[in-house]
């Protein structure tokens, strides 16, 4: 899809990937609706984007919503319907908002598990459902997943579960909407340098030799997926190879991860 003058609703706009993605989409000429929980951060980001005096057709805006709560999702859905009724149509929805916590399952509080599944899986499903009422056609729903959707990794049990569910949801909805002129895309970044990863995770990745991408690199891949309408894409080598290998020969991947288990355990039990 050509992005110039397309209106894009971007959740998780205040995060590392979200901020960089907003900048790259704006430079492509897209009109942005930025969704987040922090008005100050959203206002600051809006000031950094190309504005109407730079490109006459750009009119960015923001909307405050906590997508981990049903009232936040409902408020956003109602506002999007109101925008459509007022003649402001949305062409692309990007489900980028997400959260993870590096800890073994035995260390987790039940409330944090529920919140993680809610934001990583339930919220994108419900927002996608609401979008069917107001999304312009032809339109795109793009879901941001993770390499961990295809590789179950110690310390990220519920994150893996949520992103794996999001992958299958994207695949099923894509097939469901084949005749509806709405394409559903899925992209899976590997480890990325954002505030979601605390110091323990950064140190662990360094010790294990895991490559991490910058938010800029991930945003660039997302933009290209939108432009080329790539149905599903994994970012990074050898992660994309491991994702495929885990489907065919999971014991091989398990053996590789087993060699890392002592280091993973040490960092999981390390004080923040």
Characterise this structure.
The chain has 10 helices and 7 strands. The chain has 272 residues and is of the alpha/beta class. The chain has a single domain, classed as 3-Layer(aba) Sandwich (Rossmann fold), CATH 3.40.50.720. Helix 1 packs across helix 7 and helix 4 packs parallel to helix 5. The protein is globular and about 55 Å long. 37% of the residues are buried.
Short structural description:
The protein has 272 residues and is an alpha/beta fold. The protein is built from ten helices and seven strands.
Layout of strands and helices, then pairs:
Layout: E1 7-10, H1 16-27, E2 31-36, H2 39-48, E3 61-64, H3 70-85, E4 90-95, H4 110-134, E5 135-144, H5 157-176, E6 182-188, H6 199-208, H7 215-228, E7 232-234, H8 239-248, H9 250-258, H10 261-268
């Amino acid at each position: 899809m050509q992005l110039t003058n397309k209106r894009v609703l971007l959740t998780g706009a205040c995060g590392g990937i979200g901020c960089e993605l907003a900048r790259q989409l704006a430079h492509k000429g897209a009109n942005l609706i930025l969704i987040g929980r922090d008005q100050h951060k959203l206002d600051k980001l809006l000031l950094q984007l190309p504005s109407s005096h730079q490109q006459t057709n750009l009119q960015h805006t923001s909307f405050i919503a906590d997508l981990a709560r049903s009232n936040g999702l409902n408020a956003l859905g109602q506002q999007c319907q109101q925008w459509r009724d007022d003649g402001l149509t949305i062409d692309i929805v990007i489900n980028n908002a997400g959260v993870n916590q590096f800890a073994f399952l035995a260390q987790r509080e039940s409330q944090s598990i529920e919140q993680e599944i809610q934001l990583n899986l339930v919220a994108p499903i419900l927002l996608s459902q609401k979008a069917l009422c107001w999304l312009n056609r032809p339109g795109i729903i793009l879901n941001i997943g993770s390499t961990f959707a295809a590789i179950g990794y110690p310390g990220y049990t519920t994150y893996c579960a949520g992103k794996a569910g999001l992958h299958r949801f994207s695949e099923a909805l894509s097939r469901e909407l084949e005749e509806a002129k709405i394409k559903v895309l899925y992209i899976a970044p590997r480890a990325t340098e954002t505030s979601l990863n605390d110091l323990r995770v950064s140190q662990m990745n360094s010790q294990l030799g895991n490559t991490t991408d910058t938010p800029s690199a991930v945003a660039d891949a997302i933009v290209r997926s939108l432009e080329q309408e790539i149905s599903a894409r994994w970012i990074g080598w050898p992660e994309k190879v491991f994702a495929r290998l885990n489907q065919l020969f999971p014991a091989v991947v398990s053996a590789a991860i087993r060699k890392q288990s002592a280091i993973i355990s040490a960092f999981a039990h390390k004080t923040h």
